[in-house]
Amino acid sequence: MKKLITLAVAAALVAPMAASAETTLYGRLSTAVVTGDDDTDRAWDVETGTTRIGVKGGEDLGGGLKAIFQAEWSFTSDDGPGASTVGGLGNRLAYVGLSGGFGTVALGRQWTPYYGSVNKTDIFENAKSTNGANDYYIGLVRTGKAVAYVSPNFNGLQAKVAVIADRATGLGTDDGVDGYNISLDYNNGPISVGASILEAKDTFTNDRWGVGASYNFGMFKLIAQYEDKDDIAGAGAADSWAVGGEVYFGNNTVKLVYGQMDPDGGDELDVWGVGLDHNFSKATKVYVEYTDSDNDSTIDSNQLAIGLRHDF
After folding, report:
1. If you average pLDDT over residues 105-120, what whole number do you get?
2. Which of 39, 81, 122, 276 lies 20 to 30 Å from 132, alpha-carbon distance?
3. pTM (2 d.p.)
4. What stretches of the chain show up as alpha helix (H) in DSSP?
5. Contacts 24+ apart (CB under 8 A), 68-76
6. How far apart are CA 77 and CA 191, in angstroms?
7. How far apart are CA 14 and CA 274, in angstroms?
């Protein structure tokens, strides 16, 4: 009887601790049949989309403080004949942090504030083959060695700051810092507006700034963005802009985007894409996407992808 009472008391003490910690396994499988044409040759292939797997979660530390973490890897589903295993894992995200009334502080490899605030037209996210629809984007997507802070949300207004350590030589040169990234976002109902500045040092080659905005009218959404990067160490200056939209009807979404990237002293790049998603459920969709990329001095190329995506 005493042993039973002891076990019951121990279980009662452990249960709240277990309930305060949470871990979620999630992922995505996306694969498409792709055909492409560069004016000289047409070929088809089976290609991996934005396939990934990850774990994320947190632990309630009490007093309104919470530990958070996320680790995410990319992998492939398009290895050639005879392959017994998929390709190696690619490191997408790996960070740990603390969250509370003060906001959130995270350390490690994570999304840049610039990407989340500016790249509003990145709507062709289904397949690797359609990433060409976003070739005009001149910002950074993710970065390692980052210390980031996200402020609390003040009636839709939120600030993000990231300091990126020297990715080439660590603390061996200057102050060991590659760049600073500051963003400000406003999200309120149908409207979303963001602006960001990235100051480059050391192994980064360009200072960048950009703005992005979208407005959801219910049946459709309009999107626009503009970016500018300065020339540092002969890397080349450039500016870019893009407009896009989504139309919703039933379980379907039609997507359209057009963008330009104009480098100083280089050839202008024109990119457009159109796509259709049909959602069988919240987790499964089939998609058709067509993209066209035209550079003034090179061959015009286009690509058609028909694929299936499942999120879990």
Report:
1. 94
2. 81
3. 0.82
4. 2-20, 113-118
5. 68/96, 68/97, 68/98, 68/99, 68/104, 68/106, 69/95, 69/96, 69/97, 70/94, 70/95, 74/50, 75/48, 75/51, 76/48, 76/51
6. 37
7. 53
